[in-house]
Amino acid sequence: MGGGMAGKAGLAGLALASLLFVGPNSFLAGQQPTAVPDAPAPQQTPPLADADGVNGPIVPGSGAGTGEGAGAASSTGGSSSSSTASAPPETGTQPQQPPRDDFQKAPPEQVAPGQMGPIIRTYTNLVIVPVTVKDSKGKEVPGLTWRDFRVFENGQRQELRIFSADPAALSVAFVIDQSLTSDVMAKVNDSLASVQGALTPYDEIAVFSYSHGSQERTAFTGAQSARVPAVLALTKETGTEELLPFNSGPLAGCSITQNGSCIDPNIQPGRSAGNSTFITIPKEIHTLNDAILAAAKELSTRPKTNRRIIYVVSDGKEAGSKATYKEVVQYLQTNNITVYGTLVGDSARWGEGYLSRFHLPFQMYDNRLVGYAFVTGGTLDAENGVNGIENSYAKIAEEARTQYTLGYYTHEPFIDGKYRSIEVRVERSGLDVIAKKGYIPSALDAR
Q1: Do residues 175 and 310 touch, judged by C-beta distance below 8 A?
Q2: Which CATH architecture has domain 106-167+402-447?
Q3: How do residues 249-277 score in pLDDT, each as one tens digit?
Q4: Cα separation of the two ends of the chain
Q5: Any idea which architecture 174-238+284-323+335-400 has in CATH?
Q6: How many Cβ atoms sit within 10 Å of the Cβ of residue 428?
Q7: Within the chain, which residue ranges are assigned CATH 3.40.50.410?
Q8: How far apart (Å, rounded) are the C-alpha atoms in residues 80 and 443?
Q9: What is the pTM of this model?
C-alpha cells in the first residue's frame, strides 16, 4: 500500500520535471510564457443630459429622450436603432413640458402627520401668507404643492420656507350689523343659531355689534362654549324702519302736533331741522369702520398660530364712523387680519349689489365691505334668504380654515413701517388666486 503511493508520487514528479526543463514552453529554451488575456474593462455609464434624467418627451420604442444622453447610451450599448425611432416627435403630438424652475433651492418646511397646522416660529422677517385657490366655477382647488406657487414681494420673487395645506384653528371676531332694515334684520336673527355649528372646538369667537357705534358683546371664548348661543340670542335686534322723508310739497309739513309744536323735530319745517322753507333730511348712521376697528383691536391679542378672522354680516353701508377706511386697513395689514363677510339686504340683490360697490361723491358708501375683503385676502357671499345666510357661515368658515399657508423671509428691513405689496401666482391656467395684497411690518412681530 505504501509502495504504491510512493510510486505514484514519483511519476508525478517526473512529469512536472519534463514540463519545466524539456517542454516546448520551457524557460530553459529561452521562450517567454504566453500572456493570459485580461478581462474586458468595465464601461462607464454615460452621464444623463440633465438632472431629471430625461431630455425631451418619452416616446415608446425610442428610449427616454432624444438628446446627447440618449445618443450616448445607444452607441455604447452596441445596438443600433433606426433614425425614425430616435427622431423627435412631430409638433403637437406630445404635451408641452413646463419650463424648469431652479429658483427654489430647497423644499419648504412641511407639516408632520397628525399635526394641527404648521409650527410657526417667531422671526422678525418671517411673513405668513394664507392663500385660497378657486377654479372657474368658484370651487376650491385641493392638491396643490409648494412647486405650484410663486410669491413676489415688491415685485421680487421670494423663496418659500413654510408650506402647509392642513387646516388651522380660527380666531373669529363676529360682527353683526344692527342698522339693517327690520325685514332683513329678522332673517339675520333667525340665522344666528347656525354660527356655532360652523366652528370647531379648536376655534374661539368674540361677538360685536354696531348701529350708532360699536359694542363688544363678549370677549373671546371657546367656540363650542355655552356662552356663545346665549350671547347671540341677546344680540338680536328689531332693526330700523326704512322711512321716506320729504323735504318739499304738502307732505313735508308736520301732520302730528302736540301743544302746537311738531312732535318730531326731525321733520319739522324750520326750527332745529332747517328753516321756514326747507327741511334737512336726517342722515343715516352705519358705523362699519368703527366696528371693524374695535374687532381688530381685540383680535390682535390672539395667538399668531391661529388664523385671525373678522366675519361681518352686513349690507356694507358706511356712514358716520370716527375711524377712516385708510386707518382701519392699515391696522388690519399690520396685524395679519383677514375680513370675510355675508352681504345681505340691498347689497345682496342681483345687479343692485354690483352697483352698490361704486361710490358717488358726497354720498355715503353703499358697500364698503367689499374693499376690506379685497385688500386683506378675504371673500364675501351674498345671500337673501335665511337658509342661504346659514350656509354661508359654514362655507366661509371652511374656506378660511383650509387655506394654503405660505411663508417666506423678507429681504426688506422688517420694522421700517413701510407698506410691502404681495402677489401670489399659481403656475396653472384657469385658477383664481385670493391672497392679501400686502402688509405693513410691525415692531411687535419681533417679540
Answers
A1: yes
A2: Sandwich (2.60)
A3: 555 555 555 665 566 655 555 445 444 45
A4: 101
A5: 3-Layer(aba) Sandwich (3.40)
A6: 13
A7: 174-238+284-323+335-400
A8: 68
A9: 0.68
